[in-house]
Write a structure and sequence with these properties.
The protein is α+β, with helices and mostly antiparallel strands and about 150 residues long. The protein has helices at about 15-25, 105-110, 115-135, 140-145, and strands at about 40-45, 50, 55-60, 65, 80, 85-90, 100-105. It is built from 4 helices and 7 strands, in the order αβββββββααα. The model has no long low-confidence stretch (mean pLDDT about 90).
Length: about 150
């Protein structure tokens, strides 16, 4: 996912080179969380299990080989186009230490950032309510609720 223009200043100047080094040189164009390949369509079951076409086997959500019995419904099979991103593990884009960066696919990146996204949603709601409290006339709001 591209970096939003308003957040670009948070990242180091050489972020593109850092990201490319982590994703391709270190990770070998595979997700470091689940081993999904970069820029490929991957068949998956929606719960993390996916088909690795290179070695012709099913893999778990952590990239381990698993044996699959015929216990899944064909309708639950989905296809996803995988794109790797370089994610700072401590959620600080300015910390560009190699040990802090990890190449992650969309699924692993969303799981890694889930708590941060929940907090951001809460903060946005809180901020909008605070702004509304500052600028709305409570008498008008009560009249609207009462139906006058």
């Amino acid at each position: 996912m591209p970096i939003r223009p308003e957040n670009r200043w948070l990242y180091p100047i050489d972020w593109r080179q850092l990201s490319q080094t982590v994703r391709f040189d270190r990770a070998g164009a595979r997700c470091e969380g689940c081993s999904r390949p970069h820029l490929r369509r991957v068949v998956h079951l929606g719960d993390g299990r996916w088909w690795d076409a290179d070695v012709r086997c099913w893999r778990s959500d952590r990239g381990k080989r698993i044996s699959m019995k015929a216990g899944f419904v064909l309708a639950s099979v989905r296809v996803t186009y995988v794109v790797l991103a370089c994610a700072p593990l401590d959620h600080d884009p300015g910390n560009s230490a190699s040990s802090n960066l990890k190449a992650l696919c969309q699924r692993c990146h969303m799981i890694h950032d889930a708590a941060e996204h929940r907090w951001q949603r809460w903060w946005n709601v809180f901020r909008l309510r605070a702004i509304r409290d500052l600028y709305e006339d409570p008498r008008v709001t009560r009249e609207r609720i009462a139906g006058r």
